[in-house]
Amino acid sequence: MGELPRQADDRGVAARWLAPHPRVAIVHAPTALERLDRLSHALDGPTVWVKRDDCTGLAGGGNKARKLEFLIGEALADAADTVITAGAVQSNHARQVAAAAARFGLRTILLLTETVTGRGDAYQNNGNLLLDRLLRAEIRRAGDVESAPVLARIAEEERAQGRRPCVIPVGGSNAVGTLGYVAGGLELLAQLGALGVNATTVVHATGSGGTQAGLLLATRMAGAALDVLGISVGAPVERQRGRVLQALRAAAARIGISDLHAVDAAVAVDDRFVGPGYGRPAAETIAAIRIAAETEGLLLDPVYSGKAMAGLIALIRAGRFRRGQHVVFLHTGGAQALGAYADDFAS
Ligand SMILES: *Cc1c(COP(=O)(O)O)cnc(C)c1O
User: Fold this and answer.
1) Higher-scoring residue by pLDDT: 8, 97
2) Domain Tryptophan synthase beta chain-like PALP spans what residues (predicted)?
């Protein structure tokens, strides 16, 4: 294969805004944009496309790899030798941080919190946690605590030992990490443009908010009429919208975009598919995972992408998207957690 541009977004608009920011190459970009004919047919609605950010190329893939191009870029620019972050025991973010750190020769400390209680042995040993251990992350366990103060204390201890720590917040959704999805959003828009597909909406799981914030900022920067709909995986609508807006404003300030006219109204979140709570799949989550697997051979997960797909399916059935329209499902990854949720698929 010849010299491809490294990513669609390395040209034009993106080059101008993103080029000044330290960045390392991690993502196998552009990730594929595939048409899901059998799923679209089964749902008898719009043409559903999938943007394969589950295949970003880093230790199982997932959306955090995009953020980590900038987060690790900044850590290296600051001459950090250790990265510290937090997440639930089955955090995909924690696993991808550990992998990116390993790849760039940094130590990793993971603060894993008991945010999801009452799960069995598989949850406590398998899935992402198995991979964290394999990636040689140093693991600290805590109860269901607020992680930011604990991360700050760990960083303080590291500094006292002469190390140079870099703290990455939960989900990597600060100003720097969010730039990864500005790049991801511009990449998606370039692909849709090249295919001549006029998609109405991109639907995806929203948690710490940076993915949605970056996508939305990208549509603004490109002047594209693509709606971004976040399906909440835990928080109620207003809290989730607040997270997205905070990340969006931080990233916009970072790259010098000041015109955020009416952006508040553009942050669309649906919280009806959370089910029993963060890290707890509903029956419809499991059903959505099965449909994607059975019709397309596509692996979703019980914490994020399964809930997002449950949301997309319900919205299609409710007539929100119709035949003849095009909708993009952003697959943010997460299938590495499936083994930790084996019990939910027992029947
Ligand atoms: C972290 C994560 C999300 C949510 O992305 P945010 O940027 O935190 O909102 C969605 N899907 C998967 C699989 C994730 O790991």
Assistant:
1) 97
2) 28-333
Task: Kindly give the distance from the C-alpha atom of residue 161 to the centroid of ligand 1, in angstroms, as a whole number.
Answer: 33
Domain with 70, as residue range(s), is 65-171
91 in catalytic set: yes
pLDDT value at residue 287: 98
**Are 204 and 310 found together in one domain?**
yes
181/214 same-domain check: yes
In this structure, what CATH number is given to the domain that contains residue 16? 3.40.50.1100
Higher pLDDT, 15 or 310: 310
Whether the pTM exceeds 0.85: the reply is: yes
> Distance between CA atoms of 168 and 114, rounded to whole angstroms?
19
Q: What is the pLDDT of residues 285-314, one digit of tens each?
A: 999 999 999 999 999 999 999 999 999 999
pLDDT at 155 over 90: yes
The atom number, within ligand 1, closest to the CA of 214 reads 7
Total domains, the chain: 2
Q: Which of 29, 73, 22 is closest to 190 using CA atoms?
A: 29
Q: Please, what is the end-to-end C-alpha distance for the chain in angstroms?
A: 45
* Contact yes or no for 93/123 (Cβ under 8 A): no
Q: Residue 213 in contact with residue 179, Cβ under 8 Å?
A: no
How far is 41 from 109, CA to CA, in rounded Å? 45
Q: Same domain for 189 and 270? A: yes
